[in-house]
Amino acid sequence: MENGLDPAPPLLEVRGISKSFGAVRALQEVDFTLRAGEIHALLGENGAGKSTLIKVVTGVFPRDAGIVRLGGEEVAPRSAKAALGAGIATVYQEVNLLPNLSVAQNLFLDRQPMRFGIVREGEMRRRAKTLLADFGLEIDVAAPLGNYSVAIQHVTAIARAVDLSARVLILDEPTASLDRHEVEILFGIMRQLAKRGIGIVFVSHFLDQVYEISDRITVLRNGRLVGERETASLSRLELIRMMLGRELAETTSARASQGEHRAREVCASFENYGKAGYVAPFNLELRHGEVVALAGLLGSGRTETARLVFGAERADRGQARVEGAPVRLQSPRDGVRHGFGYCPEERKTDGIVAELSVRENIVLALQAKRGLHRPLSRREQDEIAKRYVKMLDIRPPDPERPVGLLSGGNQQKVLLARWLATSPRLLVLDEPTRGIDVGAHAEIIRLIRELCDDGLALLVISSELDEIVTYSDRVVVLRDRAHVEELTGEAIDVGNILAAIAADSVTVALEAHT
Amino acid sequence: MTALLPRRGLAQILALIVILAVDRVVSPQFFDLRLQDGRLFGSLIDVLNRGTPVALLSLGMVLVIATRGIDLSVGAIMAISGAIAASLADSHGLPVVLAAALGAGLVCGLWNGFLVAVLGMQPIVATLILMVAGRGIAQLITEGRIVTFSSPGLVWLGNGAILGIPMPVAIALGMLILTGAVVRGSALGLLIEATGGNARASELAGVGTRAMILAVYVWCGVCAALAGVIAAADIMGADANNAGLWLELDAILAVVIGGTSLFGGRFSLILAVLGALIIQTMNTGILLSGYPPEFNLLVKAVVVLAVLLLQSPKLSGFAGIAARLRRTKA
Questions:
Q1: CA proximity to B111, closest of B130, B137, B136, B131
Q2: CATH fold for domain B10-27+39-291
């Protein structure tokens, strides 16, 4: 980092940007400075104004006030394309490329090498190969982009942006759907680009990653600038305080009541339960008032275990029991009938019905459980919706709003409410805190603890080991679609979990967590 | 029951009023009503009466479309049920005739539902099968002839009146009320909308999505069969070649005009029936105006475009979009 009295202007300078949507002031006189060659994290809760800031800078939204300077010169792009032309490229969480076209075609879309009006496929592929080689990717560029993992799609999008002579690269939640190994690849590329002098804006909810990769941090809250700090000199607690604007109790305090529930009754048990080619047979006991966490890398069989337990997938061997009695779990309906609930990882595709209201989404599982002939009256629905909107602090507190218009954290709460309304005995939560802001994150962890104290059995999947350690009574570690280890009591700590995940696996480079 | 009432039906109501006004201009007697032999007559009654088959079809179609499906076979089902009714009318009592005709519609609906819900076929392909085969089945039943009948019971269904209201209109109204009561009075409406909005999520929430899909195709088949019986009763005969021909398209149009998205989810029964009436009001108006009926198709296209534009969020006010953006970004 070149600090001190640098006479050269910063790469990207945003001064006094304001933006209102009607009466709502989404941004108020926000400043932001990006230096050449730095990785700058832009942080804030959902609704803090990160997306709006990015969209104003890249010309997607017109701004009400303020100036943007790129390399000292004022720019005012009118569209994302114009911003790209000026040298500001954005790669969003959902990659905006065409999965049915080849990697090479995606890289050179709109600017294919041509001769006599015909695309020179060979030339294009060669150039695509060279371009990706710079990023350490050796893949078949003629294959459709959709055949590759999300990580490779991201790298392709970044390569395209950089090749379009980007000087500023904005990455909006690039790691949300990547596993640990893929994140490492992406970070390697980000560091390499920064060395070349490109300024990178990194938006993420993962604080670990922010600390790992960023040089500086800018925090927004409620559309205002809270501050800009050097990452190295900013403590985690201080950062969270900046983001939330309120004191947060030490987030990683161990669960106070751990160990008290040893003698709890078994709620559901699975013996030698499994499905060929899906998950190796496992034994699992879930007790009332106990949180069991599933830990492992992406693809290790965590979600698969959860789906078997709930009945979303049929087991082909083994015996499931609920409160001691043998049961058959053939479909989600069976799971629901036996008092199970399941909040899937993919909220948008598997969880919410976006078009329907918060109220309708909340009562859906309860209504399905009651059957067609016992409809919940409108008044009962209103009461249930009102109760859970209040209890879980769903915002905005309007039960009639289509749930698709809510933020990710609030959608997650609606899904929790859907299951809580059915008075379940077992709740399966797949990545309940993924992609949601820090405030809602802490609330959901608090909820998990409360539900457990109320006697519910919980099976939780999470990639955030720090989080698992806080609330779990037992941790089942999975590797390569098999349950490999179970940790209880004192043995539950991040180091032990990592060791169990990493055992025998050579490819995964894991660093010691703090 | 609130969803039965058109909260968002402004575009449709406006369109109907405009078309009625145009009809009044081309035919000054358009709103005249007179009572004769215990039955109301007049152009308005004619619109309702003629609109009955499509209105009945749209009642089933709107539910199918709400689950993100489509049923192309309703016209063919009309032909089958009409053929059965006509063939049995003079030899059997009305209850038997109705049971056989409606039963055929139910079986047809089960077949469609089986292909879509159980075998997982795409609805447009699955129902295309019966659309093609159904007309053949109807021709087999009538042995290629136009079967006529004179059974007073069946004729009364097409031409009689109850409290001055023509029977077909009374039947359609009854079906609207019955469907509304079943769908909104039970949890069916919510579960259908959830299934159409996001089938995967609904299934994971414990909704029996297959049963929902099967049920809507069955209901669609029954509605189509009833429409077929009424169409046959109206002309006192069954013409397997022409009964219900292309009416599946009018039914789909009626549903779309009624604001239900082809992508499934939210639906409105009343607006779908209103859509059917809009179509029929246009048809009648053009007939009354003395223009050649060929104009009918063109005018229909223009009106449909107008209604869809009125509904589109981009036209119905950038204000609406801005408000939504404001809310999501807040």
A1: B130
A2: ABC transporter involved in vitamin B12 uptake, BtuC (1.10.3470)
Contact: A368, B191; criterion CB under 8 Å: yes
**Residues comprising chain A, all counted:** 514
- This complex has an ipTM of 0.85
Provide the pLDDT for residue A298.
Answer: 62
User: How many beta-carbon pairs under 8 angstroms link A with B?
Assistant: 103
Q: Look at domain A12-244 and name its CATH class.
A: alpha beta
pLDDT digits (tens, 9 = 90+) for A440-456: 778 888 888 888 888 89
pLDDT number for residue A202: 94
Report yes or no: A166 and A84 within 8 Å, Cβ to Cβ: yes
Alpha-carbon gap, residue B90 to B232, rounded angstroms: 13
Q: At B26, is the pLDDT very low, low, confident or very high (cuts 50, 70, 90)? A: confident
Largest pairwise CA distance in chain A: 79
Cβ-Cβ contacts under 8 Å, A337 against chain B = 206
**Letter string b/e over residues A396-427, b meaning 16 or more CB atoms within 10 A of that residue's CB:** eebbebbbbbbbbbbbbbbbbbbbbbbebbbb
Beta-bridged to residue A37, according to DSSP, are: none
Structure tokens, A404: 């698709």
Residue B246, class by beta-carbon neighbours within 10 Å (0-12 exposed, 13-18 middle, 19+ buried)?
exposed
CB contact under 8 A, A350 and B190: no
Backbone angles phi, psi at A176, to 5 degrees: -60, -35
- The yes or no reply on domain A248-339+425-514 and CATH 3.40.50.300 is yes
Confidence of residue A252 (pLDDT cuts 50, 70, 90): very low
Which pair of structure tokens corresponds to residue B320?
Answer: 């609406």
Residues of chain A with CATH 3.40.50.300: 12-244, 248-339+425-514
Q: pLDDT digit string (tens) for B46-65?
A: 999 999 999 999 999 999 99
Q: Is B303 helix (H, G, I), strand (E, B) or coil?
A: helix
Which pLDDT value is given to residue A7? 59
- Contact by Cβ (8 Å): A422, A366: yes
- B34-36 vs A88-91, strand pairing mode: unpaired
Separation CA B196–CA B113 (nearest Å): 15
Contact (CB<8Å) A355/B266: yes
Residue environment code for A154-169, b if the CB has 16+ CB neighbours within 10 A, otherwise e: bbbbbbbbbbeebbbb
Q: Do A350 and B326 touch (CB under 8 A)?
A: no
Residue B248 in this model has a pLDDT that exceeds 50: yes
Place of tokens 């006030």: A65
Q: Contact, A36 vs A42, CB < 8 A?
A: no
Q: Which of B194, B208, B323 sits opposite A353 (nearest CB)?
A: B194
Strand partners, A478: A483
